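User: structure tokens for this one?
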Amino acid sequence: MLLLIVLKTKMKTYLIDSKVKIRGETYTIRFYDFFHYFFDGQTRSLLTSSFFTDLFPLTGFLTLKRFKKAIENYVLDDKQIMKDVSPGDVSLSEETVLMIKDEILKNLHVLRLKKRVIKIVLFPGFGIHFKRKFCGVSAYTVPSGKLFFIFLYKSFELNTKTEHELKKTVAHEFNHLVFEEHHKNWRGMIDNIVPEGLAGHFEIFINGRQPSAFFIKFSRQRCLQLWPRAKKILYSFDWEVYDNLFNHYNKIFPLGFGYSLGYQIVGDFLKKNKGLSWQKIMKMPSQEILEKSGWLNK
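Assistant:
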């Protein structure tokens, strides 16, 4: 059962708490509902409201400015779009929230979390580019691993295609939550490449279909061709390198290459280490997974 809780703080906030029980352990799935916040007229202050900025200490970002920028990059084609949207254009059904909750429940049957409150931010995406490129669904786990965002197109509707995308997205981000819980110290790009590969294969394990498109965008042959270049930045802590690997068009790596590379590495690891449970795999450091994949010898 979903309970809408309106907390009386400095500003009106919107939380949806849902309790689930797995193997005698009770978890709270807490949704931060920015859809209804937007609908109630907070359009211009969405990224400056206390509801948003209060999340900052949980994120692991060094500055609030970088946190805002990261979210803007996910949800906006350009900054003007949010100003041009009226509250009536934004909607989120209870059916969608219930489906996300059920998917979290499915994931909890496979992977346990130490934390008992699972925090998910439901955030509207704007612009036709967002709708077309991501089928209206995207997500992001913050660096701290304490919560993740699910971005849904501003008037998101469930259908066969969007439901499939949403299920993959939930499995992907939940996998990140579990990995981050076991591995607190970031060791550079290796701790982005391998966890992305784990999340891609976990999508298949949970939903039984092919993973998100960016995991299979580049062939194994292409990944092997660029692997000597990627090996040189495995232990880099430079965020520009991260952007080159995953987010931006550049002359170093093709757009999204890091996802396909991680997917190939973890795929080889799983083939060479059959029989391991996902719970055990998630406790293994990225370095160990890379070594046992055989890619260091390629």
